[in-house]
Amino acid sequence: MGRSHRSKIGKERLALAISETKRILKVPDDYHVGIVPASDTGAYEMAMWNVLGQRNVDICHWESFGKGWFADAVSHLKLKDTVEVTEFTADYGSLPDLSKTNPDHDICFTFNGTTSGVRVEDGCDFISDDRTGLTLCDATSACFAMNMPWEKLDITTYSWQKVLGGEGAHGILILSPRAVERLESYTPENRPLPKIFRMVKKGKVDAGIFKGSTINTPSMLAVEDYIDALEWADASGGVDALIKMSEDNLGVLENFVAQNEWIDFLAKDPATRSSTSVCLTLDLDADQIKKFVALLETEDVAYDIGGYRDAPPSIRIWCGSTVEKADLEALCPWLQWAYDEVKSA
After folding, report:
1. Residue 184: what pLDDT?
2. pLDDT (tens digit, 9 = 90+) per residue, 188-246?
3. I want to staple 171 with a disulfide (CB 3.0 to 4.6 A). Which of 43, 274, 290, 324 is the partner?
């Protein structure tokens, strides 16, 4: 603390965060991992603005954040002026038919819909091993909680405040060799890039970004917090153990839902049910759900569990590995109590 991120020790700590990320997440050796500005949003926008436009694009979304990527691609990048843009979408709770995406197109998708509780199926089998296009994956609420099939993912982004519960403001960008090749062979015409989006210098990917030389000044406090979270993840058994913790947490709510008719998952298909951002519908109207949420907060039982503002009336319970299974088990009777209180009012 108190040292410049450009100092020897500062660069060493940033490089450690990168190398430990790569090791714990089991990212292939020939992939690049970098720390970039502006959380997952910055990382994903950085990818979109650098690589999209070389070929047709399939954009898949089924909740608010994925819909945002589609809007930016059309309204700000104006991709429809130069290439075909195909939209694959579904209502909250469902997944579009991803098998209809074209392997010769670039494919943008969210691994786990944080605001809908719907994820892609394990293995991402809809992505062809023989694809010629790139896949751009927003994995912010999936990394460290779900199996990431790296061979299917060309550009992956996340922020460490989600699954690892770290401080915000920084994003992680992971590039496959195919993504690097695109960056070094394609420059979008008439597309000015802000400084914080630039990752190519003189026709080559800026290797420094992936060794700890960040584009702008990072918070070294946040970096140390992230390193501490990585050490915790490693000591807990690594990514496989974190995935199991999240799945076990989901299991607590699955058991509770199975025993109560007044509550259900927003996700229609168990195979696409998120194990982190678990979204639940209740036999209550929107105003009653607000009272339900407020009751639990007043009792200091649960905070911020109201569904996302654009989602159907619902609640959202975080079940990542930073949450203890015993705490979720203790929460369930309170959910019943709050429901009974609101329903009988």
Report:
1. 98
2. 999 999 999 999 999 999 999 999 999 999 999 999 999 999 999 999 999 999 999 99
3. 43
- List phi, psi (to 5°) of 106: -75, 140
What is the mean pLDDT of the segment spanning 28-36?
A: 98
In whole numbers, what is the pLDDT of the chain averaged over residues? 97
How far is it, in rounded angstroms, from Cα 244 to Cα 250?
A: 10
Task: Give the strand order in the sheet containing 57-61.
Answer: 32-37, 170-175, 155-159, 135-138, 106-110, 57-61, 85-89
Question: Which residue is listed with tokens 């992680």?
Answer: 172
- 147 Cβ partners below 8 Å, 6+ apart? 122, 123, 243
Give the mean pLDDT of 63-69.
94
262-301 burial, b at 16+ Cβ within 10 Å, e below that, comes to ebbbbbbeeebbbbbbbbbbbebeeebbeebbebbeeeeb
Q: Return d(Cα 339, Cα 295) in angstroms, integer.
A: 10
With left for phi above 0 and alpha for psi between -120 and 50, is residue 157 left, alpha or beta? beta
**What crossing angle do the helices spanning 286-298 and 325-344 adopt, rounded to 10°?**
130
* Amino acid in the structure at residue 139: A
Q: How far apart are CA 53 and CA 67, in angstroms?
A: 18
Residue 139, pLDDT > 90, answer: yes
Distance CA 101, CA 125 (A): 11
**What pTM was estimated for this model as a whole?**
0.97
Among candidates 143, 127, 118, 9, which has minimal Cα distance to 67?
Answer: 118
Token pair belonging to 257? 């839902």
